[in-house]
Amino acid sequence: MAADSTKTIRDTGDPAPVHREVDGDAPTGGDLEAAIAHQVRMLRRNAGMSVADMAAKVGISKAMLSKIENAQTSCSLSTLARLAAGLDVPVTSLFRGADVEREAIYTEAGKGAVIVGRGTRVGHHYELLGGLRGQHKRLEPVLVTLTDDSEVFPRFQHPGTEMLYMLEGVMVYGHGNAEYTLRPGDCLLLDGEGIHGPHDLVRLPIRFLAVTAYPDNHRDE
């Protein structure tokens, strides 16, 4: 197949992506009342309702809603249920931002764990850039460095999706029957079930970021 295949992303009619940005005053965790206050206020404003409109809709006083939105009172479960119904959201969405702890892994440059893989014997260096626990463990970011030319290259096949982002050098990378010439700044997104791996190291040294997103039911073997 032809090398350097390029595709243009088009509107497929799929639902709009979930917004990731939050307001500057959004709580970062630990304060339940503050989290509920922020969510209720934000959702009410997004719905275009005034405090009076919202209070009337859910059947509480305007003064009570004002106290809730200013984190001056604790809500009963029945009040939370009425607020969620009035805002047309799940009750759990009112707790967003109230998590006590969310894990983050910081990896200093050059200090990632070294992985011994099939390509290690032919001059391939794999550095794991961090790994979260639980459901987030399915994401695996690896910095790959190729310093030695070789006529034998490892091949990979695994569940999930993989993204390669080229940082340095030039290489021809294969996926199934296709080949792609990757240069700094190029990105290749691929189905991990297709056999893939380097075909030709055009200009060394080569460095690229490989991020694999495994399916939810994936287990390490």
Count of separate DSSP helical elements: 4
Largest sheet: 7 strands, antiparallel
End-to-end Cα distance, whole Å, is: 33 Å
Give the CA-based shape: elongated
Along the chain, the helix and strand elements come as HHHHEEEEEEE
Word description of this protein:
The chain is elongated, with a radius of gyration of 25 Å. The protein contains 4 helices and 7 strands; from the N terminus they run ααααβββββββ. Helix 2 packs across helix 3. Residues 1-12, 15-19 and 26-30 have low confidence and may be disordered. The longest helix is centred in the N-terminal third of the chain and has 15 residues, at 32-46. A hairpin with an 8-residue loop joins strand 1 (113-115) and strand 2. Strands 1, 2, 3, 4, 5, 6 and 7 form a 7-stranded antiparallel sheet that branches. It has helices spanning 32-46, 51-58, 62-69, 77-87, and strands at residues 113-115, 124-128, 139-146, 161-175, 178-182, 187-191, 196-213. With 221 residues, the chain is an alpha+beta fold. Residues 7-23 have a biased composition (Basic and acidic residues).
Question: Secondary structure elements and their pairing?
Answer:
Elements: H1 32-46, H2 51-58, H3 62-69, H4 77-87, E1 113-115, E2 124-128, E3 139-146, E4 161-175, E5 178-182, E6 187-191, E7 196-213
Antiparallel strand pairs: 1-2, 2-3, 3-7, 4-5, 4-6, 4-7
Helix pairs in contact: 2-3
